[in-house]
Write a structure and sequence with these properties.
The structure is a homotrimer.
Chain A: E1 5-6, E2 11-12, E3 22-23, E4 28-29, E5 34-35, E6 40-41, E7 46-47, E8 52-53, E9 58-59, E10 64-65, E11 69-71, E12 76-77, E13 82-83, E14 110-112, E15 117-118, E16 123-124, E17 129-130, E18 135-136, E19 141-142, E20 150-153, E21 158-163, E22 169-170, E23 172-173, E24 176-178, E25 184-188, E26 191-194
Parallel strand pairs in A: 1-3, 2-4, 3-6, 4-7, 5-8, 6-9, 7-10, 8-11, 9-12, 11-14, 12-15, 13-16, 14-17, 15-18, 16-19, 18-20
Antiparallel strand pairs in A: 20-21, 21-22, 23-24, 24-25, 25-26
Chain lengths: 198, 198, 198
């Protein structure tokens, strides 16, 4: 097994944890959950078996990452982000709904692309894909796919701008954007695309 | 006492827990909390004394069920649903508000009917009643009573359709609805009523 | 060290805790977090080093109080209130964003004034100031400063009225308001100001 840190009060039942990852107090990682290298997982989290988490991911406190959720490398998950994997949930113990839980038909995946950020208390409805480097504002309800580099806010989410790979807001004029940090982008067919000036 | 499962890290101070119920990691159930049979209560939950929870209820992770909250049989409580029991809360330790906390006048009940579902991060303002089999969408703010079988979303909640007992969305035409699962309903005086075809 | 109560499952690493304060199950208080006298901190909370919490503060369950958050005396923090301290967060482990986390430039403070109340699941964007005795409704997104005594709701927050020091809603007519509890106020330049009748 690789070298990673587990706080004395955390429970780690998975052996699929990458080197250099740190897991903090009162967090519970279930069997077969996959967590990459060099991640940081805050207090009071719950990572379910079947969740897939890449390298260099930051997961702030009190997050639940369910089966069916994939987080690519470098994702930021703010405190208390809410994922779902059942669009029409019922108690599987309820007589009238039991038949829906006899197989995995109720189940829906979610996907968060490389380097994206999910703000505090954002809600990601199952079945949606968040593009690379996108930024989802705090308390935003994501109910459809989000473009790469898009900044989205509101309930439901609407796009209000673009962000740089570094996270700062990007001013795009005449289909061209340049961040103070040096990254440059062009806008083509309503998609933001990184490119290097020559 | 009945036979139920308690994870080694959970704290259960109530003796009013039904047979077959399972209580998971880092969850805390206070004295005099009532929990029925065959329930599943996820990690990091808090059930207060005076909460009343029926049979076959599913409570996902990180929920707090306060005194004054009643959940009927078969209810589904998604991750991090927020109940309240004080409409105008102040710190009871605050000098200027202490008088409001000298008796129980600040206190307001909430009620969730048989088989209803509350989506992730839904917020239920105190004093409201959620009808049987209703479905409250993720991140929805419930600030008034919800009809049986209603599907509600948004902040504040508005009704956008009907759901079947099984949880799936129901198409209602000419005051009649039939789910693929076989349940049938009629619409009368803007209420959905189950009935069986003869 | 002063006399305060710590539940056996809580972790308290700070020595800056005031007398009479109670800290409940599965809560984690980090080194150098400041907590005043006679506070109540519920289950599953996380108080970071650099957080400043006054006296007589009530912090309900599952709250995270980050570095940079100041709560004055008598504040009420409902269950699962979300603070933030980075307006454009990225994983600091993400190659493309690392330079933003080399110093503390990403960091933004928040401030909650004397006696204010934050409802369940409210979200406070970093950089905002909440005035004394203000009341933030459940599930409200605070994205700008809030006036003293203001009642705000919605996503984003908008002011819908005024509240008394005691927490009850206040009817203000002809620039004068009187609460059943006896406190009186006048409205001047769109600010509510307490005054005593002579």
């Amino acid at each position: 097994m690789s070298e990673f840190y587990v706080h004395p009060t955390a429970i780690v039942e998975s052996q699929l944890i990458g080197a250099g990852t740190r897991i903090w107090a009162f967090t519970h990682i279930l069997k077969d959950a996959m967590v990459g290298k060099n991640c940081n997982i805050g207090d009071h989290c719950f990572i379910e078996g079947g969740a897939k988490i890449g390298n260099n991911v930051t997961i702030k406190n009190s997050n639940m990452i369910w089966e069916g959720v994939t987080l690519e490398d470098g994702v930021f998950v703010g405190p208390h982000v809410f994922f779902t994997n059942d669009l029409y949930p019922r108690s599987p113990r309820l007589f009238e709904a039991k038949h829906r839980y006899e197989n995995h038909g109720w189940f829906t995946n979610s996907y968060v692309g490389y380097g994206a950020s999910l703000g505090a208390a954002a809600v990601i409805l199952a079945g949606n894909k968040i593009g690379e480097f996108a930024m989802v504002g705090a308390a935003t309800l994501v109910s459809k796919d989000i473009k790469p580099y898009a900044l989205v806010v509101g309930n439901p989410a609407r796009q209000v701008g673009w962000v740089c790979k570094c996270g700062l807001r990007l001013s795009v004029k005449e289909n061209f954007g340049e961040c103070d940090c040096g990254f440059t982008y062009r806008l083509e067919n309503e998609q933001l695309i990184p490119f290097e000036l020559t």
